[in-house]
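lol ok so funny story. i was supposed to be doing the assay writeup but got distracted and ended up predicting the structure for this chain instead. priorities right. anyway since i did it might as well share w the group, maybe its usefull for someone
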Amino acid sequence: MEFDDCINQAINFFENIDEILFQITKEQETQDFLIEVLQDQLFKTGEDGDGVSLGDYSPVTVQIKRAKGQPTDRITLKDTGDFYRSYMIEAFEGGFIVDADGQKSPSDNLFVSYGDDILKPNEETTTLITEYYEPKLLEYIENIFR
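and the output, tada:
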């Protein structure tokens, strides 16, 4: 490949970076990864994406959770698993949106109770996501210059 061709390919790459990220995010493997790291964050920390604790369980709930073998030292929002199973990723050029069904009952919505940031990645999760995308982008760049 000639130098001018390399330059043009590099320019094309940067002009189309949002589309490239969109294509990567649409892949089922990527969506599965994103959902897994976001669920792990919520389950392991009991915090929203800003690091704010979701609170503590009541003594009665602690007893129920212990009987089920579930964590009692933090709110995980994974009692039945319905909320976690509802996670989905919507890819768009320039990023993605994480969504889930927070409606536990007609009068109980997790987003009303805990805020939209329960789906937001914290710093550690953002780093994991960035580290996931880096080799995929490098692979794309390598293919340009082959």
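Helices lie at 3-15, 17-26, 28-45, 59-68, 82-85, 110-114, 123-144. The mean pLDDT is 92.
back to the writeup now i swear
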